[in-house]
């Protein structure tokens, strides 16, 4: 999105401005109110031509406009707690996460720990029993008119 640049210009300097703008290759248009006989008109152009417009205005002995004091967006407030290295535990509070549970107890020998395969088989067996016993009848939903 290109921003526009608006420069006031004396009406009597329009002819000279048009010649210089054509020489510098500036794309612009002149804006004024209908029926206005004011001494100034507005030259409207794209921000991409700002450098060329400044050169034309300098050649015509117009003062170069100073940049306005734009207010900077206020910075975010400082955080209440300074951030340090991340905690090895996940979540909020002091309870260890389930992924850290096995690593938190290194004093249990490897022979006494349950293997992952055995744990998975046990879970599969439990889920299979629940499915076969829990669902005695399934409901079917039909859309539209009943065809009976």
Question: What is shown here, in short?
Answer:
The protein is built from 4 helices and 3 strands. By secondary structure, it is an alpha+beta fold.
What does this structure look like?
By secondary structure, the protein is of the alpha+beta class. It is 32% helix and 12% strand. The protein has 4 helices and 3 strands, in the order βαββααα. The chain has helices spanning 14-24, 50-59, 98-104, 116-134; strands at residues 4-10, 28-31, 40-46. 3% of the residues are buried. The mean pLDDT is 76.
List the helices and strands and how they pair.
Elements: E1 4-10, H1 14-24, E2 28-31, E3 40-46, H2 50-59, H3 98-104, H4 116-134
- What portion of residues belong to β-strands? 5-15%
Rg from alpha-carbon coordinates: 38 Å
Order of helices and strands: EHEEHHH
Major sheet strand order: 1-3-2
Low-confidence stretches: none
Can you count the helices?
4
List keywords for this structure.
148 residues; 4 helices
